[in-house]
Amino acid sequence: MVVQRYGRPPGRGSGVFAVTAVLVGSLVGTGTVSGCAAAEDSKPLGDPALAVRNAADALTKAGTSKASTSMEMAAGGTRVTIRGEGGYDFRRRTGRLQVVLPKDAAGASEHRPITELLTPGALYMKNRGAGVPADKWVRVDTTTLDDGNLVTGGATDPAAAAELLRGARQVTYLGQVDLAGVKVGHYRGVADIARAARVASPQLRGALAAAAKGFTDDSVPFDAYLDGEGRLRKVRHQFSFSNQGRTVAVASTTLLYGFGVRVEVTLPDRRDIYTGRIEA
User: What's the rounded Cα separation, in Å, for the pair 92 and 195?
Assistant: First the structure.
């Protein structure tokens, strides 16, 4: 169940607030899953491509789940990892994550965990830093982002991760593997962002359409793991883009478990949303 409390509609956001943009700038300049078990093993679900494309529908049927995310970025020989934990409602397309940025070279944490609220068409972030008051939220319109929030927030929206698989092609079934005590089927292929955007659920269509235009190459290699009910349990996407003349490789992993848990999302009131200048 998702509890949403909407304030008055806030103004449009901007991609300049992106968490990942700050980390990518620094790069260029310088899973255990618990809490769930499947009653049945995963077996081949017919045509591999069709099984993967239907994973988003299986998640909608499941309703809610816990989510763990990991985003690894590499550029110029430097690698950082951003991790997130939370829950997601696949029917309402809303979720809440606590995103932890990497520690500095001395091992000290430079930033408080960022709270992210994921909603259709918008990303809300608290503890964003970069001049934003600690008690304020930043709102980003995900339909204006070049990546459609596939990498901007430091965590791929779980629904977007699943919807991207609607554009799957060249899919191969690699057999069963064990994922935290659950037998899942391992599928490997390539997702076409533009194709996914055309057939995506209405709530995610705008963000994926933006990503299809923003990425130089909209072919995204993936590894997906489905359980016996066709639900996506794990997916790893490999993105790449150019930043200040350098190629940045991003591997985004989403783990889903604990299906049916209570997920609460309370959106901030308009007066709690920061509209001032964001520091670079």
Answer: 23
* CA nearest to 192, candidates 162, 210, 226, 217: 217
Query: Rounded distance, CA 105 to CA 272, Å?
Result: 33
**pLDDT tens for each residue of 53-75:** 999 999 999 999 999 999 998 87
Question: In the structure encoding, which two tokens stand for residue 87, read together?
Answer: 């829950």
3-state secondary structure of 83: strand
Listed residue (198, 221, 222) closest to 209, CA to CA: 198
Which of 142, 127, 141 has the alpha carbon at shortest distance from 272?
127
Residue 279 reports pLDDT greater than 80: no
Residues in contact with 220: Cβ distance below 8 Å, sequence separation at least 6, in sequence order: 164, 190, 191, 192, 193, 237, 238, 239
Distance between CA atoms of residues 181 and 38, nearest Å: 8
- What region does 77 belong to: left with phi over 0, alpha with psi -120 to 50, or beta? left
| Cα separation values, 68 from 114, 209, 246, 257, Å | 14, 25, 29, 9
The pTM is what?
A: 0.83
Query: CA 161 to CA 178: how far, in whole Å?
Result: 21
3-state secondary structure of 181: coil
